Amino acid sequence: MSAEQNKEFVRRYFAALSGKDKTPGLVDEYVADSDPELKQHIAYAESAFPRYELIAEDVIAEGDRVVVRSFLRAVHKGEWMGIAATGKQVTMPFIIIYRIADGKIVQHWMQGDTVGLMRQLTGAAEAQPSSG
Length: 132
Prior knowledge:
Blueprint: H1 3-17, H2 24-30, H3 36-48, E1 53-62, E2 65-75, E3 89-101, E4 104-112, H4 114-122
């Protein structure tokens, strides 16, 4: 697939998952068995943030790689990293790189603002330096 076709594939993937139940069957349509970590991450996030939305802000591709600058928007309805459901609406920016082969995601790399997400869930504010 060309870089443009890979970008379109990732856009379809985001649209297929965003705001919907992320069933194993749906995820399997887009993610190859070679990337079990992504499948596990999606299932874990879905259990804590059911029907979370994925909003792509930039989609950039070269060869078999697609980079997406995006954010997740969700309501916290299940346990996440030891934090019981809070019912809070949260957003988390992240950047993810997908490697596409044979019409599926075969590998990924992701960096997200998990510290910011935890602050939203716990209400913890950034520590302020003391003045004195």
